[in-house]
Amino acid sequence: MTWEIIYHKDVDEDLESVGPAAARRIILTINEKLTKAPEKFGAPLSNNLKNFRKLRIGDFRVVYQVFNKKVIIFILAVGPRRDKEIYRSASKRI
Length: 94
What we know:
The chain is an alpha+beta fold. It has a single domain, classed as RelE-like (YaeB-like fold). The protein has helices spanning 11-18, 20-34, 38-41, 85-93, and strands spanning 4-7, 43-44, 53-57, 60-67, 72-80. A hairpin with a 4-residue loop joins strand 4 (60-67) and strand 5 (72-80). The N and C termini lie far apart (27 Å).
């Protein structure tokens, strides 16, 4: 089964901020892993992001939500883990 990927409107800005090489790597990893087995590769988050998961890609994180009934992955945020910056950004978007 292939999962459909939907991106939050601000993810484009996230990807621009990490640079072209990192953005390519992140998109490639999302397409390779999350479209095939989103729950296998990501780890669950807690607190106000408890319905979301994170995918580690080097120093970067992808915060996403799985909608099993619709076979959809919603990418909420992409960015560096540094000082938990990515999780603060993601929290502001929900």
